[in-house]
Design brief:
The chain has helices spanning 7-16, 35-40, 243-246, 357-364, 431-437; strands at residues 2-4, 30-31, 65-69, 74-78, 89-98, 104-113, 120-125, 130-133, 136-137, 140-143, 148-156, 163-171, 185-186, 206-207, 216-220, 229-233, 238-241, 255-258, 273-282, 296-300, 328-333, 348-353, 372-375, 392-396, 403-411, 422-426, 442-443. It is mainly β and 450 residues long. The strands form 5 sheets. Strands 1-8-7-11-5-3-2 form a 7-stranded mixed beta sheet, covered by helices on one side. Strands 14-22-21-24-25-26-23 form a 7-stranded antiparallel beta sheet, with no helix packed on it. It has a 6-stranded antiparallel β-barrel with strand order 15-16-17-20-19-18.
Length: 450
């Protein structure tokens, strides 16, 4: 159960327990502690006794207290004695503050199991908004709209559960696209990115093999039985798509369907996963007139479970700097098979050559910015079409069989019009922006070369 609480009622409750979140700023801030500091820092607070240390290589968890985080920093918190039941009577507060006014703090709990709402709860606050959680939750996530985030855990119960385990991370959403790209966090499981499933070998294209491109996502809504746009899985929590696909949408009306192939049959339901979108992050410089900066991130309500059979898996992001001119690349989607034609229910693919932006601008007679990438054949015939928007354009990483995403289906002049190539968002122009908004989120390493 999730509780929506007023600030006054929660602060009243916390004050009765002897802790007031509103006064947490009076406590001296600590920097993100090192591993040695964490190992040596045993609490002296009589109200709590949380053990600290690495657990099976996972993120270190910190004691109740006050901590200062810089963008890219990440800490863990968990209930006492986790995963064993927490004490019957306990209270604890963690207060996190970003090092700059632009820093934003996020929380995600991968495991959350408390007793009833009368006896146990976790309350999260960003200073202006408070959210309470109790009972068992499939997942808990909270993103602060300021550089402050406070977590308060209290319990007074006769039957304790195993509690919770959460991550707190800091990011800077104002980071520019040309800054250095921070290294991604690594996933703890055995997942890999960019591994295509191909046993054999969209206008003018062909039907893909089932789960051939396991990163493909279909975006749908409550009122649609077919996807209105495509997307691609890049991590356990994020899908990459085009900004124009979700511009003006509320997150709760968008559902990401992972692993679909044929929308006309229900037989695939056992191999697909559905996730409600919890947050839409559109690039701040998206121009709906020119389609420049046509890129968006969708944060999923719960993490993706990557199966061992690779039927659902992420695509690898490309390296920075490379232009990807004159390479063969593959676009996938459920869009129309011809202009003004019907949308297909089966995932199709089309392989097209990329080109220089100068050639593309000459052919399209429209502004092609450095944030765009063009692909198509002079004679037309093969190109992405309406309904493919937001889907990935992928190619093989140099000298390997692993796939990387170099583009996002963005716009074009008609479908398969001779001399009018399709235009894609150039993904490696936005690596810093992507990392800045997914900081602390595990990324799967590339599949080994085969």
């Amino acid at each position: 159960m999730r509780l929506r609480l007023s600030t006054s009622s929660v602060l009243c409750l916390i004050t009765l327990w002897g802790i007031n979140i509103a006064t947490a700023s009076e406590v001296p801030l600590q920097g993100a502690p090192s591993e040695r500091q964490l190992e040596n820092n045993q609490t002296g607070n009589n109200n709590e006794n949380i053990a600290i240390g690495a657990k099976d290589g996972n993120l270190l968890s910190v004691n109740c207290g006050t901590y200062q985080l810089s963008p890219g920093d990440e800490l863990g918190i968990e209930s006492p004695d986790y995963p064993n039941p927490y004490p019957l009577v306990h209270l604890c507060a963690w207060d996190f503050q970003g090092t700059t006014p632009q820093t934003r703090l996020s929380l995600s709990c991968s495991d959350f199991d408390l007793g009833n709402c009368i006896g146990s709860s976790v309350t999260i606050s960003n200073g202006s908004f408070i959210q309470g959680y109790c009972d068992k939750q499939e997942s808990v996530s909270f993103e602060s709209n300021s550089n402050r985030l406070t977590v308060f855990f209290r319990t007074l119960t006769f039957q304790a559960k195993k509690g919770f385990q959460c991550r707190i991370w800091a990011s800077d959403p104002t980071s520019g696209a040309d800054a250095a790209v921070p290294p991604p966090a690594r996933a703890n499981d055995a997942c890999v990115c960019g591994k295509v499933n191909r046993d054999l070998k969209i206008v003018g294209g062909k039907v893909t093999e089932k789960h051939e491109y396991p990163w493909q996502v279909g975006l749908t809504s409550h009122s649609l039985s077919q996807p209105f746009c495509g997307g691609s899985i890049i991590s356990h929590l994020y899908v990459l798509t085009a900004a124009h696909c979700v511009d003006g949408f509320s997150p709760e009306v968008v559902t990401a369907v992972l692993g679909p192939h044929d929308w006309s049959t229900a037989s695939e339901s056992g191999s697909t996963q559905k996730r409600i979108v919890s947050k839409i992050i559109i690039h701040p410089n998206f121009n709906s007139t020119t389609q420049d900066n046509d890129i968006a991130l969708l944060r999923l309500s719960t993490p993706v479970n990557f199966p061992a059979d690779n039927q659902i898996a992420p695509i690898c992001l490309p390296p920075a700097g490379k232009l990807y001119e004159d390479v063969n690349a593959t676009a996938t989607g459920w869009g129309r098979l011809k202009e003004d034609g019907n949308i297909t229910s089966i995932l199709h693919e089309v392989t097209v050559p990329t080109m220089t932006n100068a050639k593309c601008a000459q052919m399209n007679e429209m502004v092609i910015t450095e944030n765009m990438l063009c692909a198509g054949r002079d004679e037309g015939k093969q190109v992405a079409c309406q309904g493919d928007s937001g889907g990935p354009l992928v190619t093989n990483d140099d000298g390997t069989t692993r796939m990387i995403q170099i583009g996002i289906v963005s716009w074009g002049q008609g479908c398969a019009v001779p001399g009018k190539p399709g235009v894609y968002t150039r993904v490696n122009r936005y690596l810093k922006w992507i990392r800045g908004h997914t900081s602390g989120t595990p990324f799967c390493p590339p599949t080994p070369d085969r």
